[in-house]
Amino acid sequence: MVQDNAIEANGGDASEARAWLALWNAASDCGAGSGSIDPQSLRALPAGRKWAREAAKVVFDGLVAGSLSAPAQLAARWDRFGGSVTALIVELGKVWGDPAAGRRVQYYLEQMLLDVDDLAAPRKLARTLGIRVDVRNPASTELPEGVDQIYAWLMIDGQIEARVQFGALGTVTSGHWTELSSNFVAPELRLENQSDRDSHFGKLARLAEEAQLLVQSSAEATDVLPAPRRAPAADGHDNDRASFWDRHFATENRWNYASPYEQEKYERQLEILPAGPIGQALELACAEGHFTRQLAPRVDHLTATDISAVAVERARERCSDQPNVAFGVLDFSADALPGEMDLIVCSEVLYYLDDLAELRRVAKKLVAALAPGGSFISAHAFVLRDNPEKTGFDWNTFGAQAISETLAATEGLALEQSIQTELYRIDRFRRLSPDEVVAEARIDHVPIRAPIEMGVARKIVWGGARALRRDVARREQRQRIPVLMYHSVADDGPAALARFRCTPALFGSQMAWLRANGFHAISTEQLEESIAKRQPFVGRPVLITFDDGFQNFADNAWPILRANDLTAEVFLVTDLVGDSARWDAAIGLPTQLMDAGTVRRLASEGAFFGSHMATHRAIDGLSTSDLAAELLRSRMFIERWTGRPTTSFAAPFSVTDRRLGRLARECGYRIGFGGRHGPADLDGDPIDLPRIEIRGDRSLDDFVATVEAVLDER
Questions:
Q1: What number of other Cβ atoms are within 10 A of residue 702's Cβ?
Q2: Alpha-carbon gap, residue 88 to 48, rounded angstroms
Q3: What is the DSSP string of 248-265?
Q4: Are 436 and 461 in the same domain?
Q5: How far, in whole angstroms, is CA 361 from its chain's centroid?
Q6: Which of 168, 185, 218 is the last residue of a domain?
Q7: Which domain-ending residue is among 437, 452, 467?
Q8: Tell me, what's the pLDDT at 195?
Q9: Residues 214, 246: one domain?
Q10: 676-686: string of b/e by CB count within 10 Å (b at 16+)?
Q11: Distance in angstroms (rounded) separating the CA atoms of residues 587 and 349
């Protein structure tokens, strides 16, 4: 019997076995026309969402036996026992202390009854109306009292074209049926569908109005939306370098020259200056003059130059009290360089030359511009393109290693000293006199002590890369991608929730692995667009998602994501934003949730947000009206906080039912995630996509194997 299987699956004891038998007997009595219910006999039944379906199966079997009916006859005979069996299920919800759990059993039971029925006539159950619809000539369907779900066969010439099940709030008009049957894709919430206030769409529109009023009334005076992100500057048709750099310097202090990281590099450039007095010095690419001001006191006369007139003017203003500094606009690649220089300084700019051939040509010009015995100082970062096996910046250029090797191979230059860190090297080359013997260079390896700001850190791949994003983008396309599901990133928490909690160290190693293996993060909007266009995924995209919106995402996960040049989508429980995860209260101290201010800040920094409904209740226990209200309310609150359209959701507890997909579309969503496990692919239903749960009680090797398995399925 079904209850025996349920007991065995749960490892139940004798008291539980008696409770399952009591439920079966009570359902059998309902089927036989008796409505006697003994709540005490049901108290040992296991509570919890996963047992709702089992309870419905037991009730179904009891009804078959008690009514002496075949399963296919039960829906037609609902009037005989429907009231008593509904009362039984309501009582079961009371025993569990959870009316929503009882409603969940009711939905499951009615679905089972209609799954085996022939719908020869309309079947009005407690919450579901089962009907056939002639899609060539559909009639409006009025909802009986208490019903909020439609189970329909769409018929053409007596043949079943489709079976549909969806939540309904009011009259399903003939136009609604026509639209549904035309392509089986739910329409958007259109004005023409709102004209009849008692229709499904009319009531949905009223719920949307109520949600909008709630959002507006809850807005605080300080609830300011983030400013739109600056659009990238258009290059137009002007490709000359001077215009390119003028556009860059349109934003002042673009590279945060005053940061501790940049200042430490400046100090080391000053440290490597040649001993003794320096007469004539030339600074190439002086930018806005921050290093110019520090170099000026160390030389007799300094000529500071840059290709950008905008930058030169800022440098002139910054160094206006330095009488030994002259300024000029100079393209060191195209223009002639002044000669007889005792020192030339060139920092963080040689990467921008077109190729190594141009670098070799510039190197010869530098030799010609130096006086014999003069020094050339180069400060540049390591780039993965030079050596992907070592830490470096993921830029599409050559880097410090190639620059240093090219300069060292230039006739007339010899390396005298080098200060090298894990991220950059600063070299001093000497212009050799004729017949000068080259001494062995001094190499100093030093740590980076200054903190590295996020804008710099997110372009670094520590320890090297096994695959570069641009390389895999050129050669790889795939039909499916991993959508990773996380919850919490923290060191501590209730033991019962360990599988849902990654330590920051483990999460950091996972994100570093993704970065080092050429993955780039996408948003749900990009995923939905690829599926809609059936456009293969280029390179190695990954969608990183977080359920619930814990504060530890902001504290622990987001800095790690940004440092690895990744982003994520967080699904928020909007009624509880700023509160705690009350749904876990029975397990331990509930985890703090992000507040609206934190959501706004992270959205402005590049995080994405979607809906995890409004209350974190499992949707299969919600009435259709409550489900629609939560879908609408949560979407509107998130849009207010982030200033961006919200089109994604993830079902709480990964629980869905047949109403959710259509209703979610009608409420403005285009992409959603339920309870299925696996990668998302181009053939998937975008409103019911699978995800891959990343458990906190598994190792980095397990994570790697999981993600690589998706890569192998190209």
A1: 12
A2: 18
A3: HTTSTTTT-TTSHHHHHH
A4: no
A5: 45
A6: 218
A7: 452
A8: 52
A9: no
A10: eebbbbbebeb
A11: 57
Q: How far apart are CA 366 and CA 290, in angstroms?
A: 23
CB-based burial label for 86 (10 Å; 0-12, 13-18, 19+): buried
> Is residue 312 within 8 Å of 285, Cβ to Cβ?
no
What's the half-sphere exposure (Cβ side, CA atoms, 13 Å) at 111? 21
Residues 340 and 311 grouped into a single domain:
yes
Separation between Cα atoms, residue 283 and residue 345, nearest integer Å: 5
**pLDDT at residue number 220:** 53
Flag whether 502 is in a domain. yes
Q: Are strands 280-284 and 341-347 parallel, antiparallel or unpaired?
A: parallel
Residues whose CB falls within 8 Å of the CB of residue 200, separated by 6 or more in sequence, listed in order: 168, 169, 170, 171, 172, 173, 176
Shared domain check, 425 and 554:
no
| Gyration radius (Cα) of the chain, Å | 34
Encode pLDDT of 333-390 as tens digits: 999 999 999 999 999 999 999 999 999 999 999 999 999 999 999 999 999 999 999 9
Tokens 């894709």 sit on residue: 185
Is the distance from CB of 134 to CB of 155 less than 8 angstroms?
yes
Residues 668, 656: Cα–Cα separation, whole Å:
17
Strand partners, 712: none
Same domain? 148 vs 247: no
pLDDT 10s digits, 518-564: 999 999 999 999 999 899 999 999 999 999 999 999 999 999 999 99
Q: What is the greatest pairwise CA distance in the chain?
A: 115
Question: What CA–CA distance (Å, rounded) separates 22 from 26?
Answer: 6
The residue among 62, 55, 71 whose CA lies nearest residue 25 is: 62
Contact in structure between 573 and 594 (CB atoms under 8 Å) = no
Domain-embedded: residue 496: yes
Secondary structure in 3-state letters for 47-102 = CCHHHHHHHHHHHHHHHHHHHCCCHHHCHHHHHHHHHHHHHHHHHHHHHHCCHHHH
CB of 582 within 8 A of CB of 590? yes
Tokens (6 digits) for 299: 């030389």
